[in-house]
Amino acid sequence: MSGFLKVAWLVLRKDLRVESRNREMLFTTLFFAVSCVLVFSFGFVRGGQAVEGAASGILWITIAFSGTLALGRAFERERNHDALRGLLLAPVDRPAIYLGKLLGILLLLAVVEAVVVVLVAFLFRAPLFQYVWRLLTLLTLGTIGFASVGTLFSAMLVRTTNRAVLLPVLLYPVTIPVLIMGVSGTAALLQPEPDLAMARLWIGLLFSFDAVFLTLAFWTFEPVMTE
After folding, report:
1. pTM over 0.90
2. How many degrees, rounded to 5, is the angle at CA 43 between CA 40 and CA 46?
3. Whole domain around residue 126: which residue ranges?
4. Largest CB tally within 10 Å, which of 13, 49, 167, 220?
5. Beta partners for residue 46, in sequence order
Protein backbone atom coordinates (compact mmCIF):
# COMPACT_ATOMS: atom_id res chain seq x y z
CA MET A 1 0.00 0.00 0.00
CA SER A 2 1.39 3.42 -0.96
CA GLY A 3 2.02 6.07 1.66
CA PHE A 4 -0.89 8.18 0.40
CA LEU A 5 -3.42 5.37 0.68
CA LYS A 6 -1.96 4.24 4.01
CA VAL A 7 -2.56 7.69 5.51
CA ALA A 8 -6.11 7.75 4.13
CA TRP A 9 -6.73 4.29 5.61
CA LEU A 10 -5.38 5.37 9.01
CA VAL A 11 -7.65 8.42 9.07
CA LEU A 12 -10.63 6.29 8.04
CA ARG A 13 -9.82 3.61 10.61
CA LYS A 14 -9.53 6.23 13.34
CA ASP A 15 -12.95 7.65 12.47
CA LEU A 16 -14.53 4.20 12.34
CA ARG A 17 -13.01 3.22 15.67
CA VAL A 18 -14.23 6.39 17.37
CA GLU A 19 -17.68 6.04 15.83
CA SER A 20 -17.95 2.39 16.87
CA ARG A 21 -17.67 3.40 20.51
CA ASN A 22 -20.80 5.57 20.68
CA ARG A 23 -22.33 5.54 17.16
CA GLU A 24 -23.34 9.15 17.72
CA MET A 25 -23.13 10.33 14.11
CA LEU A 26 -24.74 7.17 12.74
CA PHE A 27 -27.74 7.18 15.06
CA THR A 28 -28.28 10.96 14.74
CA THR A 29 -28.07 10.95 10.95
CA LEU A 30 -30.19 7.83 10.60
CA PHE A 31 -32.88 9.14 12.94
CA PHE A 32 -33.02 12.44 11.06
CA ALA A 33 -33.25 10.67 7.67
CA VAL A 34 -36.04 8.36 8.80
CA SER A 35 -37.91 11.30 10.34
CA CYS A 36 -37.68 13.22 7.03
CA VAL A 37 -39.14 10.32 5.06
CA LEU A 38 -41.96 9.82 7.56
CA VAL A 39 -42.89 13.51 7.55
CA PHE A 40 -42.88 13.64 3.75
CA SER A 41 -44.99 10.50 3.59
CA PHE A 42 -47.78 12.21 5.54
CA GLY A 43 -47.75 15.10 3.09
CA PHE A 44 -47.40 13.24 -0.21
CA VAL A 45 -49.34 10.00 0.31
CA ARG A 46 -53.13 10.08 0.03
CA GLY A 47 -55.29 6.98 0.31
CA GLY A 48 -52.28 4.74 0.01
CA GLN A 49 -51.15 6.40 -3.22
CA ALA A 50 -48.16 8.71 -3.44
CA VAL A 51 -48.15 11.88 -5.52
CA GLU A 52 -46.70 11.07 -8.92
CA GLY A 53 -42.97 11.75 -9.09
CA ALA A 54 -42.67 12.46 -5.36
CA ALA A 55 -40.55 9.43 -4.44
CA SER A 56 -37.43 10.41 -6.37
CA GLY A 57 -37.43 13.97 -5.05
CA ILE A 58 -38.03 12.92 -1.45
CA LEU A 59 -35.30 10.30 -1.66
CA TRP A 60 -32.69 12.85 -2.72
CA ILE A 61 -33.91 15.60 -0.41
CA THR A 62 -33.56 13.20 2.49
CA ILE A 63 -30.05 12.25 1.38
CA ALA A 64 -29.08 15.92 1.06
CA PHE A 65 -30.47 16.93 4.47
CA SER A 66 -29.06 13.96 6.37
CA GLY A 67 -25.76 14.29 4.50
CA THR A 68 -25.51 17.94 5.56
CA LEU A 69 -26.05 16.90 9.17
CA ALA A 70 -23.26 14.32 8.95
CA LEU A 71 -20.90 16.69 7.12
CA GLY A 72 -21.40 19.33 9.78
CA ARG A 73 -19.74 16.99 12.27
CA ALA A 74 -17.11 15.53 9.96
CA PHE A 75 -14.25 17.45 11.57
CA GLU A 76 -15.95 18.08 14.91
CA ARG A 77 -13.85 15.57 16.84
CA GLU A 78 -10.62 17.01 15.47
CA ARG A 79 -11.45 20.37 17.05
CA ASN A 80 -11.24 18.93 20.55
CA HIS A 81 -7.87 19.14 22.37
CA ASP A 82 -6.37 20.81 19.28
CA ALA A 83 -6.25 17.44 17.49
CA LEU A 84 -6.73 19.11 14.11
CA ARG A 85 -3.48 21.04 14.50
CA GLY A 86 -1.62 17.85 15.33
CA LEU A 87 -3.14 16.11 12.32
CA LEU A 88 -2.08 18.92 10.00
CA LEU A 89 1.43 19.02 11.46
CA ALA A 90 1.97 15.34 10.69
CA PRO A 91 4.47 14.79 7.84
CA VAL A 92 1.87 13.37 5.44
CA ASP A 93 0.09 14.46 2.29
CA ARG A 94 -2.89 16.54 3.35
CA PRO A 95 -5.06 15.35 0.45
CA ALA A 96 -4.73 11.89 2.01
CA ILE A 97 -6.40 13.28 5.15
CA TYR A 98 -9.21 14.58 2.96
CA LEU A 99 -9.61 11.19 1.29
CA GLY A 100 -9.81 9.41 4.64
CA LYS A 101 -12.48 11.81 5.93
CA LEU A 102 -14.41 11.55 2.66
CA LEU A 103 -14.43 7.75 2.78
CA GLY A 104 -15.75 7.85 6.34
CA ILE A 105 -18.63 10.13 5.32
CA LEU A 106 -19.41 7.92 2.30
CA LEU A 107 -19.60 4.80 4.47
CA LEU A 108 -21.91 6.55 6.91
CA LEU A 109 -24.19 7.80 4.14
CA ALA A 110 -24.21 4.36 2.51
CA VAL A 111 -25.71 2.87 5.67
CA VAL A 112 -28.26 5.68 5.91
CA GLU A 113 -29.22 5.41 2.24
CA ALA A 114 -29.76 1.65 2.51
CA VAL A 115 -32.42 2.30 5.15
CA VAL A 116 -33.90 5.32 3.36
CA VAL A 117 -34.28 3.50 0.02
CA VAL A 118 -36.18 0.64 1.65
CA LEU A 119 -38.38 3.08 3.57
CA VAL A 120 -39.19 5.19 0.49
CA ALA A 121 -39.92 2.08 -1.57
CA PHE A 122 -42.33 0.84 1.10
CA LEU A 123 -44.12 4.08 2.04
CA PHE A 124 -44.40 5.46 -1.50
CA ARG A 125 -44.81 2.13 -3.28
CA ALA A 126 -41.96 3.07 -5.57
CA PRO A 127 -40.34 0.34 -7.71
CA LEU A 128 -36.84 1.34 -6.62
CA PHE A 129 -35.53 -2.21 -6.89
CA GLN A 130 -36.72 -2.82 -10.44
CA TYR A 131 -33.42 -1.50 -11.83
CA VAL A 132 -31.34 -1.89 -8.71
CA TRP A 133 -27.91 -1.57 -10.35
CA ARG A 134 -28.78 1.65 -12.14
CA LEU A 135 -30.25 3.06 -8.95
CA LEU A 136 -27.16 2.00 -7.02
CA THR A 137 -24.97 3.74 -9.60
CA LEU A 138 -27.01 6.94 -9.35
CA LEU A 139 -26.87 6.90 -5.56
CA THR A 140 -23.14 6.17 -5.50
CA LEU A 141 -22.20 8.88 -7.97
CA GLY A 142 -24.60 11.41 -6.48
CA THR A 143 -23.37 10.78 -2.95
CA ILE A 144 -19.72 11.06 -4.01
CA GLY A 145 -20.39 14.39 -5.72
CA PHE A 146 -22.32 15.74 -2.74
CA ALA A 147 -19.90 14.48 -0.10
CA SER A 148 -16.73 15.50 -1.94
CA VAL A 149 -17.77 19.15 -1.91
CA GLY A 150 -19.27 18.88 1.57
CA THR A 151 -16.13 17.41 3.10
CA LEU A 152 -14.04 20.23 1.66
CA PHE A 153 -16.42 22.91 2.97
CA SER A 154 -16.64 21.19 6.34
CA ALA A 155 -12.84 21.33 6.63
CA MET A 156 -12.82 24.95 5.51
CA LEU A 157 -15.39 25.96 8.14
CA VAL A 158 -14.08 23.86 11.02
CA ARG A 159 -12.57 26.90 12.79
CA THR A 160 -15.63 29.15 12.37
CA THR A 161 -18.25 29.57 15.07
CA ASN A 162 -21.23 29.63 12.68
CA ARG A 163 -20.25 26.56 10.65
CA ALA A 164 -23.65 24.90 11.15
CA VAL A 165 -25.30 27.85 9.38
CA LEU A 166 -22.61 28.51 6.79
CA LEU A 167 -22.21 24.91 5.59
CA PRO A 168 -25.62 24.54 3.87
CA VAL A 169 -25.39 28.12 2.56
CA LEU A 170 -22.15 27.22 0.74
CA LEU A 171 -22.92 23.59 -0.01
CA TYR A 172 -26.34 23.63 -1.64
CA PRO A 173 -25.69 26.17 -4.42
CA VAL A 174 -22.67 24.16 -5.56
CA THR A 175 -24.27 20.73 -5.31
CA ILE A 176 -27.69 21.63 -6.75
CA PRO A 177 -26.67 20.24 -10.19
CA VAL A 178 -25.75 16.90 -8.57
CA LEU A 179 -29.07 16.71 -6.74
CA ILE A 180 -31.03 17.65 -9.87
CA MET A 181 -29.25 14.95 -11.87
CA GLY A 182 -29.87 12.41 -9.11
CA VAL A 183 -33.56 13.26 -8.94
CA SER A 184 -33.95 13.25 -12.73
CA GLY A 185 -32.12 9.94 -13.14
CA THR A 186 -34.16 8.28 -10.41
CA ALA A 187 -37.41 9.70 -11.81
CA ALA A 188 -36.52 8.24 -15.22
CA LEU A 189 -36.30 4.79 -13.62
CA LEU A 190 -39.58 5.18 -11.71
CA GLN A 191 -41.77 6.13 -14.68
CA PRO A 192 -44.52 3.71 -15.71
CA GLU A 193 -42.34 3.05 -18.75
CA PRO A 194 -38.76 3.55 -17.48
CA ASP A 195 -36.57 5.71 -19.70
CA LEU A 196 -33.29 3.82 -19.45
CA ALA A 197 -31.54 5.96 -22.06
CA MET A 198 -32.27 9.10 -20.05
CA ALA A 199 -31.11 7.39 -16.86
CA ARG A 200 -27.81 6.51 -18.55
CA LEU A 201 -27.44 10.13 -19.65
CA TRP A 202 -27.82 11.40 -16.08
CA ILE A 203 -25.38 8.75 -14.85
CA GLY A 204 -22.81 9.94 -17.37
CA LEU A 205 -23.29 13.57 -16.35
CA LEU A 206 -22.96 12.65 -12.67
CA PHE A 207 -19.71 10.86 -13.41
CA SER A 208 -18.35 13.96 -15.14
CA PHE A 209 -19.35 16.25 -12.26
CA ASP A 210 -17.78 13.86 -9.73
CA ALA A 211 -14.50 13.91 -11.63
CA VAL A 212 -14.47 17.72 -11.60
CA PHE A 213 -15.49 18.01 -7.94
CA LEU A 214 -12.95 15.45 -6.73
CA THR A 215 -10.13 17.02 -8.73
CA LEU A 216 -10.87 20.49 -7.38
CA ALA A 217 -11.27 19.18 -3.82
CA PHE A 218 -7.92 17.36 -3.82
CA TRP A 219 -6.27 20.39 -5.38
CA THR A 220 -7.69 22.97 -2.94
CA PHE A 221 -7.73 20.99 0.34
CA GLU A 222 -4.13 21.76 1.30
CA PRO A 223 -4.28 25.55 0.77
CA VAL A 224 -7.67 25.68 2.47
CA MET A 225 -6.35 23.90 5.56
CA THR A 226 -3.11 25.89 5.53
CA GLU A 227 -4.97 29.15 5.79
Report:
1. yes
2. 120
3. 3-226
4. 167
5. 49
